[in-house]
Amino acid sequence: MNTREKILGKTEEFILENGIEKLTISKIAKELNISQPAIYKHFKSKDELLTILALRWLNGQTLVKIFPFDTSKYEHQKEIVHDWLWSVAIAKYEAHRKTPEMFALYTTYIGENLELGRKHILEMVESLKTAAKFESEEEAAAYIQAFVYFHHPKIAPQWDDQFQNQFENLWTLLEPNLNDF
Question: At what angle do helices 46-58 and 3-18 cross, to 10 degrees?
Fold first, then answer.
């Protein structure tokens, strides 16, 4: 494992054990028995370190399940769209429940960074468009926007035991608009 990966791993470990508010570069350097300048050799700033860590965590928790989305077992567009949206929703729901500290990092460093947030949404739109064979990005984006309650990190504190029921209720309203190709 290279130094960069060690820094990322130790930072994630620290956040999980102590919370993000107690994190300092000096504490990570001390735990790795390296100097602070050694960390800055790999990351320009604490914000860059945390942004990269948040992206790495997001990719491992959520995006790996939908990029690319395997449609080989599906016959109908409705099923693809439903399961794609549910995969995103349940991955984020479970991540929020299992590792709230890392979800908080994701919320702070991706959810509040307009450029990263836009990039994440565009990746989601492209994935859904491809999986469901939508003709336009706008159509895929409309479904993602309709289900924002189930994937936006700022709404996560409202998620409760009715999460799946709420998802299915919304799905019932939108399902008739899809094809049975």
Answer: 80
* CB within 8 Å of 66: residues ≥ 6 apart: 84, 87, 88, 91, 124, 127, 131
Closest to 93 measured CA to CA, from 156, 155, 145, 149: 156
Closest CA to 29 of 19, 41, 18: 41
Token code pair at residue 43: 């990351």
pLDDT in tens, 20-50: 889 999 999 999 999 999 999 999 999 899 9
Q: Both tokens of residue 122?
A: 């565009």
**Residue 179: half-sphere exposure toward Cβ, Cα within 13 Å:** 8
In this prediction the pTM is 0.82
CA distance 5 to 12: 11
Q: What share of the chain is helix, strand, coil (3-state, %, to 5)?
A: 80, 0, 20
pLDDT at 175: 93
Rg over CA atoms, the chain: 19
Nearest to 146 by CA among 55, 79, 84, 94: 84
First to last CA, the chain: 47
